[in-house]
Design brief:
The structure is a single chain. 65% of the residues lie in helices and 1% in strands. It is mostly helical and 275 residues long. Helix 4 packs across helix 7 (160-186), helix 7 packs across helix 10 (232-257) and helix 9 packs across helix 10. 12% of the residues are buried.
């Protein structure tokens, strides 16, 4: 070929997105993968048919104790139909359970909106500032000493889904800034700060969350002076926040360590500040 002759272009590789091609690629790429896939599919089919038979076909759907204890009966879902209020709303007063339902719906809507990037606007922070007081006002019946015309319900009677949503969302939000500080402290060149942050992270990560909740709920009041009480919701919230911050600090520290040394030196060469 001379320099003026061009090699004809080859067709671009095609990528098939069909589900059959994906199954063949991931489950039956070779004989070993195919054999393992067949065995696992057979086991899943065997377990699935028995689960369907136990959980649906032979299940007892009505709250009947005698029927649930009869021979050959599968799952007894009647207890869910009978106790779903306790499961979802805890010991909240029965006649006032519309309040945690509304409060949970409000908080769940805020969480879902916060997960959508298109809603990341300054007004989203305003919604949270307004939404949390409304949540506490509905749940407690009063806010900052102001009566809302609702019966007062102590926090020790909160439970179920409303309490789970509150503790998880608020504790994660409070744990994030603390986690960043602890992660920076673990990378500090000051021995005292580094040792303090390391002991905190390793100690908290080595303890189960249930132990932290047990200490916050039952053990901590025993060490307080007589007459001094701290709300149980606040104690649990602090415990979960400290627990989550220890795990999140390791995530942040891992992200900082992933920055290449050359990139850090290049930034310093350009005159960029530490922040």
């Amino acid at each position: 070929l001379s320099t003026n002759d061009l090699i004809p272009a080859r067709p671009a590789p095609t990528m098939s997105t069909a589900w059959l091609s994906a199954v063949r690629q991931h489950l039956f790429a070779d004989w070993g993968t195919g054999l393992a896939s067949v065995v696992l599919l057979l086991l899943l089919g065997y377990a699935g048919t028995h689960l369907l038979d136990w959980g649906v076909l032979r299940a007892q759907w009505l709250p009947d104790v005698a029927a649930c204890r009869a021979d050959g009966v599968g799952a007894c879902w009647g207890v869910v139909a009978e106790k779903y209020r306790v499961i979802l709303l805890g010991r909240y007063p029965l006649e006032e359970q519309w309040r945690p339902v509304v409060a949970s719906s409000l908080l769940l809507a805020l969480l879902l909106v916060s997960c959508l990037r298109s809603f990341w606007r300054p007004w989203l922070a305003i919604l949270w500032v307004l939404g949390l007081p409304i949540y506490f006002g509905l749940m407690k019946g009063h806010l900052w000493g102001l009566s809302l015309g609702l019966s007062a319900v102590d926090t020790d009677r909160w439970g179920g889904l409303p309490l789970t949503l509150l503790l998880s969302s608020v504790s994660i939000a409070l744990a994030l800034p603390l986690a960043v500080l602890v992660a920076l402290g673990r990378r500090s060149e000051l021995p005292a700060i580094k040792a303090l942050c390391t002991v905190y992270v390793e100690l908290v990560r080595g303890v189960p969350l249930i132990s932290v909740l047990f200490m916050a709920s039952f053990m901590l009041p025993l060490f307080l002076p007589q007459g001094l009480t701290i709300d149980v919701l606040l104690r649990v919230l602090v415990g979960i926040t400290l627990f989550a911050a220890a795990y999140m600090a390791e995530v942040v520290r891992g992200g900082l360590q992933a920055v290449p040394r050359g990139q850090v030196e290049a930034a310093a060469t350009l005159g960029l500040s530490w922040w």
